[in-house]
Amino acid sequence: MNPKISVIVPVYNAEKYLCQSLDSIIAQTIEKEIICIDDGSTDSSICILNRYKDSYPELFSIISRENRGTGYTRNEGIAIAKGEFIAFMDADDYYAENTSLSKLYDAAIAYSVQVSGGNIVLIDEEGEYYPKGNWYDKTELLCYSDIQVIYGFTRYLYDRSLFVDKSHLFPPFTRYEDPPFFISIMADVKSFCSIPDIVYINRKRKKEMKYTYDKAYGVLSGIRDCFRIAYENNYTRMYRETLSKLLLDHFQYYYEYAYAKDDQVLGLIEEILSIEQKWIGESYSTISKDSITDIVEYGLSFKQKCECFVEYGKSIIIYGAGYGAKELYDAFFKGYSHFVGVAVTDVNDSNSECIDGFRPCDIRDYLKYKNDAEIIISLKDQGKQRLINSYLKDLGFVNVTVISMDISWVTRI
Fold first, then answer.
1. How far apart are CA 182 and CA 238, in angstroms?
2. What does the DSSP 8-state code read for residue 373?
3. May I ask the CATH class of domain 299-410?
4. How far is 217 from 44, CA to CA, in rounded Å?
5. What is the rounded distance in angstroms from the CA atom of residue 341 to the CA atom of residue 58?
6. How far apart are CA 201 and CA 120, in angstroms?
7. What is 5-203's CATH superfamily?
């Protein structure tokens, strides 16, 4: 008799958290099988998997081979799955409670849907929990067109029939394969059942990222596919809330190759911008193939300038207390002993926020630094930049740097 659920777990160097992940699956009260694919791990992950296989031979199927990426790995698990439904678990995450999968399964059966989903929370390295993504507050049938989210695919349960004809497999990208997979399925099923329970705990870890060509190609291919599917289904909310920011959010992955005029990378960017232009009528991405050179050259120059400030112990004051100022601080001056503080014109402005404990102060409070400190103006509005620059000169500040480009692009270089 086939299990009700197949849980597919790609594993790559996950020894630290793998046992917690597997234990949470074993503890699920529903009939299940657990398919683990070791994706060429170099730590003790495969030994841990084999130990679990020896202890629970009826539950586990283990595959081990060279590294090919999580998308390929999940597809391998799908190919041998026997469950009525399929769930996906990352090897450092875990289920919130023993009944997470049974609740998702019962909801899918009760509402006769091919997809059901619950809530997901993040856990950071300090053990603090944070809600992630949109929140479902009751059990109900929902239209995906009313939700239009693209992340968090692991908190959903999928009818295995969706994968039989191979139309909904993970694309073969080394990065950003999850969103197009998820959007494709949800655009097909159109409706799903939500439950109000927290079902999945997603571990947030600081990982050292190597931005390789394969990852750049994968990210841009994934973004292109998301744009294509969203355009075909006219998911304008998805564009407005998520897609319009993707080229910026992932700039660090591909800018080197775009700057080097790589044809494939530039071709993918052109495809994305072409869909955006055709669909929305204009681009809100504030980037083009031609502008990348200017962005990168300015960003590298500004980065070098900030590194020189730090190297020579220059006192730094950031003018502006919005999101851009925080990005600037986090990228270049976090923990810097000669960082003086944050300046604004109006300390009562509701948009001004504390940055790492530095409370925004009136720029005149820093007059004693006017001959020594470097004032970096971090404001998006160029008109305001000119006014503030003139104001600072009138106050007698000698060293002023104006960021002439959106700081969000610069900090990703």
1. 13
2. P
3. alpha beta
4. 30
5. 61
6. 6
7. Spore Coat Polysaccharide Biosynthesis Protein SpsA; Chain A (3.90.550.10)
| CB count in 10 Å sphere of residue 301 | 12
* SS3 state of residue 1: coil
CA 178 to chain centre: 11
Task: Copy the structure tokens of residue 134.
Answer: 């949109």
Residues 6+ apart with CB under 8 A from 348: none
Q: How far apart are CA 339 and CA 372, in angstroms?
A: 12
* Among 203, 322, 211, CA closest to 265: 211
On whether the CB atoms of residues 147 and 75 are closer than 8 A, the answer is no
Per-domain boundaries in the chain: 5-203, 213-287, 299-410
In a structure prediction context, what are the per-residue pLDDT tens digits for the chain, which is 413 residues long? 799 999 999 999 999 999 999 999 999 999 999 999 999 999 999 999 999 999 999 999 999 999 898 999 999 999 999 999 999 999 999 999 999 999 999 999 999 999 999 999 999 888 888 888 889 999 999 999 999 999 999 999 999 999 987 779 999 898 999 999 999 999 999 999 999 999 999 998 777 778 899 999 999 999 999 999 999 999 999 999 999 999 988 999 999 999 999 999 999 999 999 999 899 886 666 677 778 888 889 889 999 999 999 999 999 999 987 888 888 999 999 999 999 999 987 777 656 678 888 999 999 999 999 999 999 998 777 788 889 999 999 999 999 998 877 787 888 88
Q: Which residues contact 405 (CB under 8 A, 6 or more apart)?
A: 294, 295, 298, 299, 302
Nearest to 392, CA basis, from 409, 412, 406, 374: 374
119 close to 136: Cβ distance less than 8 angstroms: yes
